[in-house]
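Reproducibility note. Readers wishing to regenerate the assembly model reported in the main text can use the exact inputs given here. Chain order matters: entities are listed in the order in which they were concatenated for prediction.
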Amino acid sequence: MSCPPVVDAYYLKEIERARRDLRALIYSKQCAPIMLRLAWHDAGTYDAKTKTGGPNGSIRNEEECKRDENKGFEKAIEFCGEVMAKHPKITYADLYQLAGVVAVEVTGGPTIDFVPGRKDSLVSPNKGLLPDARKGVRHLKDIFYRMGLSDKDIVALSGGHTLGKAHNERSGFDGEWTEDPMKFDNTYFKELLKNKSNGLLKLPTDKALTEDLTFLCYVKLYADEEETFFKDYAASHKKLSELGFRSS
Ligand code: HEM
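Running the prediction on these inputs yields the following structure tokens for the assembly.
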């Protein structure tokens, strides 16, 4: 049976102080999208079978950070380093996941329950464990099922693309998914269901969400009901941020 990790009262206070610092930093640097993506890329390498990868701070390793799939994270890691300098007891693993939670919150998204206690690792997972945006339904399912996540998690978490943009020099894709990329809401799903693109971005993996019946049901639900999206997103984000964390 899994049980919650134990962190002491001092650590919990430091987490709350770091949370406030992250709010201020993300607001002043306007860096919510890249902070969310950093948290996702640290966590999304998890392999449920081997219990490797996951949110363990390994993305700060130069070798992992410099991989093609992680282009553009240097600044985000540097910003987190500023918070770390003030709260050195906190693990990088907790700090990056806290930054993801705060990024969603300060852009108007749901409150995501945050439980601290992740351990840091300096062992980077293999390359190629994160989804490839040029691929389709089968690939998405293979990657997220490997993490132990579901179809519902795939669609809810893809709603993270309500924030930010693609940069040609980083991924080879260019553009924003929504008209207001600094606001966390359900417009990503509304845009997905429109036939016209309005010049907005749809990656092949975004389009895939309308090409599978189970995916499509959730896309329609989230486009219609923002509250349901927020509730499901918060639950899926929490799962992602805790992969492999309380089961060992
Ligand atoms: C950006 C792929 C899932 C959050 C991007 C970019 C790609 C991509 C290609 C553009 C990177 C760049 O050029 O800067 C994918 C694929 C996914 C996926 C294939 C599979 C479903 C997620 C998830 C989240 C997320 C689960 C968070 C919950 C973001 C954010 C950005 C982004 C916030 C914008 C970053 C910025 O503005 O700098 N993603 N992503 N993505 N992704 Fe995803």
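We highlight two features of this model. The two ends are 9 Å apart (CA to CA). Residues 9-29 form the longest helix (21 residues).
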